[in-house]
Design brief:
five-stranded antiparallel β-sheet; about 40% helix; 7 strands; alpha+beta; about 15% strand; globular; about 220 residues
Length: about 220
């Protein structure tokens, strides 16, 4: 007997892929990668699924407000993004994998909301290099959007705001360590010019200046 209310949308996986299908970030939920009758490991099943998925979506660009739908290994995959030939926006795709029976329209709505939030956080440029430079924000976004496969929030603006608030509390330090060998460098190091900051660092500096201004004004 399922303990999940039937009206709560849920997903089997959320992936952030570059234009070649390489996973930049993502999470699998539930029994998606659990041991089955074959002898493959969870990593092998994951890699095989992502390779099959890339074969389905390669060459397809989905508008941020009009997710595309494909079927991969019997599951529904909905994605946004994937600019072709240097088009506007970026080559990164946000993909939601739905369990059997989940509505395509619901999955599309979820995917479009997360892609909108990702675009907000990346300053409108969802290309591979921008996402890699701000991976801590991407993983925080996934956590704010979904918990254990259950969708928590869909509104792009609310998601982006929640991510920045959590990142301001220092949560991003732990989530970034060990990812692609890159540590999260929060704030500005001495001697770093504003032009060298990532989007996440720029947001943090702007927040700190705003809060400092509010504190000074309240003390008057």
């Amino acid at each position: 007997m399922s303990s999940i209310p039937p009206l709560l949308p849920n997903v089997d996986a959320i992936l952030v892929l570059d234009g070649d299908g390489n996973r930049l970030a993502g999470k699998y939920y539930g029994t998606f990668l659990k041991k089955k009758q074959d002898d493959k490991s969870a990593e092998e099943r994951r890699d095989a699924f992502e390779k099959a998925l890339q074969q389905k979506i390669a060459g397809i660009a989905a508008r941020p407000d009009a997710a595309e739908v494909v079927t991969c290994q019997g599951r529904t995959a909905v994605f946004c993004g994937g600019a072709i030939g240097g088009g506007a926006g970026g080559d990164v795709r946000v993909v939601h994998i739905g369990p059997p029976g989940e509505s395509e329209l619901v999955l599309a709505y979820l995917c479009e909301g997360m892609y909108d939030a990702l675009s907000h956080l990346m300053g409108g440029s969802t290309d591979r290099s921008m996402v890699l430079d701000n991976l801590e924000l991407v993983f925080l976004l996934i956590d704010e959007h979904c918990d254990g496969g259950i969708i928590l929030e869909v509104d792009g603006s609310k998601l982006a705001s929640a991510v920045l608030l959590r990142d301001d509390d220092g949560v991003g330090d732990d989530s970034q360590q060990g990812l692609h060998g890159q540590g999260a460098q929060l704030g500005m190091a001495p001697g770093v010019a504003p032009g060298d900051m990532t989007i996440g660092q720029a947001f943090r500096q702007a927040r700190e200046q705003f809060l400092a201004g509010m504190t000074s004004r309240d003390g008057m």
